[in-house]
Amino acid sequence: MQAAPPSPPLPALSVQTIAPTQRAAWIAAGLAPVAVVVAATAPGAWIIAPVMGLALLALVLIDALLAGPVMDWGIDTPDDMEIGQPARLRVHATFARPIMGDARIAISADPRVLERGRAVIDLAASQHGGVWDGAIAVTPTRRGTARWGTAWLAWPGPLGLGARQVTQDLGRTVRIWPDISPVRSPDLQTFLRNAQIGLINRRIRGEGTQFEALSEYEAGMDRRRIDWKASARHSRLFARENESERNNQIVFAFDCGQAMCEPVNGVPRIDRAVSAALTCAYVALKGGDKTALFGFARTPQLMTPFIGGARAFHRLQSAAASLDYQPVEPNFTLALATLTARLKRRSLVVIFSDFTDPTAAELMIESLGRLVGKHLVLFVTMTDTEVEDYITAPPHDIATLARSVTADSLAQQRKLVLTRLRRLGIDVLEAPWAAIGPGLIDRYLTIRRSEAIG
């Protein structure tokens, strides 16, 4: 994804105000007891209290005027971001007079972009005369379109008693996309360059199970490829050359329900799943297979057509960005029945889901059992690290021991559900979120080499 161009500078004159600084507030708080003492000991001198207040107010106004105006200021906000990936938010300002204190910019935005919906950036003098700048790292936590709200720039006067402040409504939006940083990783690109898939549009011999031709056996060939019957007829060793099948259909199905909306290391499970699926889809497209996305919760959300070719990968990314978060229980019966009706040929269906107990998983198991009769099913789930931490926690007290026992019971129930899925003929991939992407690619390549899809 290309970097967004710098945002235009904000108007220097928008809404300007003058405000006392923290130092002025502390001085006022210190003068209050003095005024009380004067009023108690010398009632006739009560006029001193309002005079001190007016003097402090005058100093605040004079100091703010001495701060001078801001000549130019701006905020460079990105137009596109990826969930879980940090981006730089840069600010700058140019003042008419030297600044003696601290200048800072406060920004409000959607909570999915800024934690608690607000961030404060301290400005520092740069090497360029009169220019102050600063930056912070911003990491979005949810997909969608977020809005940048209002920006405030404040800078103090030379005495540090009064400050000027300008306010500007940014009126900008940022599109938060699924994380495809694994697709751009050097490791994956090196793998794709060195692998046979996706480089030459030809038949790949030596893989798969579909017979292509016989060739004379040479030293170094796999002995399992020897065709003993042909070798006996010709009195020489011959090896089978198989053709790797292409144009397979792979469907990545996402449970967008309540369990998948829970965060894993600060990012919802559904977004971890989307990142892993898009990485695997990119490898599949490079290998000549076709991929599609299917999302569901209480009802099916989307079903993309099958897409072929790595150049169409952006269509999958755009479709994945539209998957919504829904805090409801998923309807596996309706979703998988809809998916089965739309698939016209045998496909590999990769389902990303999670469950909390065997009772909630009963309908899922039943629906997957019907799906596996027509298609090859791979069930992908993430290891619950929080439960693992509870299990391995030292039992310092009764409460910790109780949590450990409960967590171990949940882990055993989870293993029971996964065992039932395996007995139905469903391939299961369970791994920590960081290993889901590489594990899914390995499993896909293993299935592809075994020619089990077609």
Describe this structure in words.
36% of the residues lie in helices and 30% in strands. The protein starts with 14 loop residues before the first strand and ends in a 5-residue tail after the last helix. It is an alpha+beta fold and 454 residues long. The protein folds into three domains: 15-177, Immunoglobulins (Immunoglobulin-like, Sandwich), CATH 2.60.40.10; 181-185 and 246-449, von Willebrand factor, type A domain (Rossmann fold, 3-Layer(aba) Sandwich), CATH 3.40.50.410; 205-243, no CATH class. The strands form four sheets. Strands 1, 2, 3, 4, 5, 6, 7, 8 and 9 form a nine-stranded mixed β-sheet that branches. Strands 12, 15, 16, 17, 18, 19 and 20 form a seven-stranded mixed β-sheet that branches. Helix 6 (269-286) runs parallel beside helix 12 and helix 10 (385-392) crosses helix 11 (398-423).
Largest sheet geometry: 9 strands, mixed
Low-confidence stretches: 1-7, 9-13, 198-209
Based on CA atoms alone, the radius of gyration comes out at: 32 Å
What is the count of structural domains?
3
Count of strand segments? 20
Structural class of the helix and strand makeup? alpha+beta
Give the averaged pLDDT, no decimals. 83
| General form | elongated
Short recap of the structure:
This protein is an alpha+beta fold and 454 residues long.
Highlighted features:
454 residues; alpha+beta; Immunoglobulin-like; Rossmann fold; nine-stranded mixed β-sheet; seven-stranded mixed β-sheet; elongated; disordered N terminus
Write the layout of secondary structure elements.
Blueprint: E1 15-20, H1 22-41, H2 48-66, E2 70-76, E3 80-82, E4 87-95, E5 103-109, E6 118-125, E7 131-138, E8 144-156, E9 162-177, H3 181-184, H4 186-194, E10 205-216, H5 228-234, E11 238-243, E12 249-255, E13 263-264, E14 267-268, H6 269-286, E15 290-296, E16 300-303, E17 307-308, H7 313-321, H8 332-342, E18 348-352, H9 358-371, E19 376-382, H10 385-392, H11 398-423, E20 427-431, H12 433-449
Helix pairs in contact: 1-2, 6-7, 6-12, 8-9, 9-11, 10-11
